[in-house]
Structures are given as C-alpha cells and as structure tokens.
C-alpha cells in the first residue's frame, strides 16, 4: 500500500483539488464571475507608483493600513460592525468553519449553492446539511426552517444572491432564517454589489450574524480580499484564528487604491448590470433557452442540450461553466458570467446561430 494513502485522512483522499481552467489568453473567459475589465492606463500607472513604494520589506499590518476605514466608508458598513479581513472570502469561509468545528457540529446551507461550504464542512469534520432549493431556485423556507429545527446547526451559510443560480431570495425569508438560526449565520454577499438588497446594514447588531463580502466579483479577484462584518464578540473570536499576515502588503496597497477610485468601480458595476439585462433579455427571446432571473454578475440558463451549447461556445473560443451533473436541480444548466458588450455579443451570436432557424 502507498504510504500517503495510509497517512492522509480518507475524506481528503476522496476529494479532488479545486482546479482552475488552464486556458489561452485569447479565450473569452466567462466561467468565473470576474469583471471583464481593468483600470484604464493612467490609473494603472498611478497604481504602479503606489505599489512601487509599498513597504514590502515590512510585515503587513491590516489594522493600521487604513483599509478597514476605507471599506466602512465606501460600503457604508455600520459603525457598530467589526471587520475581519480574509485572503479572499474563501479564507473567511474556512476560518469561520474552523471556529465552529466542535465535535458533531453541523453546517446547514441550501443546495445547490457555493461549493466551498460543503468542502470546508468535510475538511473540518462537520456534518453538512444541504436543503434543496425549489425547482425555480427560490428558497424553500418551510424545508429550511424544519431542517434548522431538526438539526440545530452551529453554522448556516446563505449566499445572497446565490451562486450558481443568481436567483434572488426574498429578504423576509432570509430574515426568518436569521431569526431561526440557533448558531452563527453567515450571509455571503459575494454578489452584493450587483443586487438590490443587502444585509450589511444589520452587521454588528446581532451576535450571531456575519455579513461577508469580497472585492473579487467587482474587479479585483486577483487581489484576494474578502471581509467579514459582524458583532465584536464573534469577530474577536474569529480574529484569534486568522493566520498572522494573511493579507499581503501589495494587496492592501492595491485595495486601498481601488477604494479611493471607487467611482470607476461603480461605473463598471453599472455597465455590467445593464449588460446583464441586455444579455438576459436577448437570450429570453430564444424559445429553447430558459433564462433564470439574476441579481448577480452571471446568468444561469437551461438549454435542451448543454453539451451542444458548451461545445459551440468553446469552438468560438468562449469558456463558460457547465453546471449539468453537479446537482439534480441543475439539469441541462449553464452559467454565463456577464462580460463586456463585445463579449456578450459574441455569446449571443453563438446562441442565435444555434437556435434561430
Ligand atoms: C466567488 C464566491 C466567493 C469567493 O470569493 P473570494 O473572495 O474570491 O474568495 C464566496 N462566496 C460566493 C458565493 C462566491 O460565489
């Protein structure tokens, strides 16, 4: 028998590594909810100057970097909320799971949702309870409240808006889940900037509530900057298990630069939201394509044959996410990140060519 197979935990051996698509630069990358643009050249130069003088000889100190204050001002995070920064919100999901990983602890979320909730449950030995969404990807509140009552989960994750579906949940439903939560509840607002609603104004009010956000989907996936906003009692406990120096000096510098130029970011968000409407309306005109309403920067659709559509897009050098097979509710579903006008036009060309006869 191979040595590692005797040493390494079974549940990890059964996992596969999170793989990132290996794709040529020329590819139109619409698989990972990245913003399709970067700063214009004059701003890039200004950023380069800021990075050039960053104190990379020193360990980073997020607390004195001024970033948290900037986050609070830019996103109107309530005064009473305390912030913990993560190397992407992925790290915060991991740390919050670790924080609550007592023996026999349980995590509850909806299914399908962000894969990292389940993955971290497995990593830290918590039982994962996934409550299925309705067929139209809305919340099944009755089922969730009943599962909460039965399982009494220590930790609940609700992605609001949800990934990979994008369909908005009702605010009142999520509020009921928060009220019913017997433990910590994380509202993961990775797509909050594209959505009409947010729980951020409640951050810091209730001990059990964490509102988590990230810069990844609004133009800065490469910086790896997520932030959790919550009550000081919980955030102080979370702060104890954050690895020292998890944020790096260059990221902190670039993130501060981005927030000082948030007007530019906001413009991109508005353009993207307009493109989302345009793309979903155009796709809705095709009778073969079922378009789900989205409040995120992606659109989930159902087509008669995912393989056919995926391949046609691929042949046109467009990469999207095939959701088929990842959950029964996602039968024949695809997820398209909204791109630039030109990119979306190319996507539409492929669909129109395939379906309008
Ligand atoms: C993309 C995504 C994240 C991860 O964001 P990072 O900050 O890049 O780690 C977290 N939650 C959801 C629901 C996401 O879709």
Walk me through this protein's architecture.
The protein is α/β, with parallel strands linked by helices and 357 residues long. It has 2 domains: 21-40 and 263-356, Aspartate Aminotransferase, domain 1, CATH 3.90.1150; 57-261, Aspartate Aminotransferase, domain 2. The protein is built from 14 helices and 13 strands. It has helices at residues 3-7, 10-13, 41-52, 62-65, 67-75, 89-99, 115-123, 141-151, 171-180, 232-241, 249-260, 262-284, 306-315, 341-355; strands at 28-29, 82-86, 106-111, 127-132, 155-159, 184-188, 209-214, 226-230, 290-291, 298-302, 318-319, 321-322, 333-337. It has a 7-stranded mixed sheet, with helices on both faces. The chain has a 4-stranded antiparallel sheet with strand order 9-10-13-12, covered by helices on one side. Strands 1-11 form a two-stranded parallel sheet. Helix 5 (67-75) runs parallel beside helix 11, helix 6 packs across helix 7 and helix 8 packs parallel to helix 9. The chain is globular. The N and C termini lie far apart (58 Å).
């Amino acid at each position: 028998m191979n040595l590692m197979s005797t040493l390494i935990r079974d549940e990890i051996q059964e996992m596969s590594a999170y793989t990132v698509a290996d794709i040529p630069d020329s590819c139109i990358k619409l698989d990972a909810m990245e913003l399709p643009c970067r700063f214009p050249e004059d701003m890039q130069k200004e950023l380069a100057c800021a990075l050039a003088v960053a104190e990379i000889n020193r360990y980073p100190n997020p607390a004195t970097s001024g970033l948290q204050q900037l986050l609070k001002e830019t996103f109107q995070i309530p005064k009473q909320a305390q912030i913990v920064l993560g190397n992407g919100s992925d790290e915060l999901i991991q740390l919050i799971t670790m924080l609550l990983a007592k023996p026999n602890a349980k995590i509850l979320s909806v299914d399908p949702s962000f894969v990292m909730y389940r993955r971290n449950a497995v990593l830290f030995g918590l039982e994962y309870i996934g409550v299925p969404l309705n067929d139209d990807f809305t919340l099944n509140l009755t089922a969730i409240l009943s599962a909460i009552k039965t399982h009494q989960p220590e930790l609940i994750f609700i992605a609001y808006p949800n990934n990979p579906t994008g369909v908005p949940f009702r605010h009142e439903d999520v509020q009921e889940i928060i009220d019913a939560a017997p433990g910590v509840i994380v509202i993961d607002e990775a797509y909050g900037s594209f959505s009409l609603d947010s729980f951020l104004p409640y951050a810091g009010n209730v001990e059990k509530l964490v509102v988590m956000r990230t810069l990844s989907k609004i133009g800065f996936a490469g910086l790896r900057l997520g932030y959790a906003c919550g009550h000081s009692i919980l955030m102080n406990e979370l702060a104890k298990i954050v690895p020292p120096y998890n944020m790096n000096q260059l990221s902190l510098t670039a993130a501060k630069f981005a927030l000082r130029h948030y007007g530019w970011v906001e413009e991109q968000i508005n353009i993207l939201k307009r493109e989302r409407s345009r793309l979903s309306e155009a796709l809705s005109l095709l009778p073969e394509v079922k378009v789900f309403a989205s409040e995120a920067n992606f659109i989930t659709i159902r087509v008669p044959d995912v393989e056919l559509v995926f391949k046609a897009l691929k042949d046109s050098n467009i990469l999207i996410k095939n959701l088929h097979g990842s959950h029964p509710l996602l039968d024949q579903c695809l997820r398209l990140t909204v791109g630039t006008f030109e990119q979306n036009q190319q996507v539409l060309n492929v669909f129109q060519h395939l379906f309008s006869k």
